[in-house]
Amino acid sequence: MTKLDTAVTTRPTRIRYIIAILLFITVVINYMDRANLSIAMPALSQEFDLTTGQQGILLSAFGWTYAAMQLPGGWLVDRVRPRVLYASCLVLWSLATLFMGMSGGFVALIILRLMVGGFEAPAYPINNKVATAWFPERERGRVIAFYTSGQFIGLALLTPVLSWLQTVLTWHWVFILTGAVGIIWAATWWFVYREPRDKSGVNQAEIDLIASGGGLVDVESGASKETKPKLKWSDVKVVLTRRKLWGIYLGQFCLTSTLWFFLTWFPTYLVDYIESGFMASLPFIAALVGVLLSGWVSDLMVKKGLSLGTARKLPIIIGLAMTVFMLGANYTDSSALVIVFMSIAFFGNGFASITWSLVSALAPERLLGLTGGMFNFIGNLSSIATPIVIGFLVTDIDFAPAFVYMAAITIVGVLSYVFLVGKVERVEE
Question: Which domains can be identified in the chain, with CATH numbers?
Answer without folding.
Answer: 13-217 (1.20.1250.20), 231-428 (1.20.1250.20)
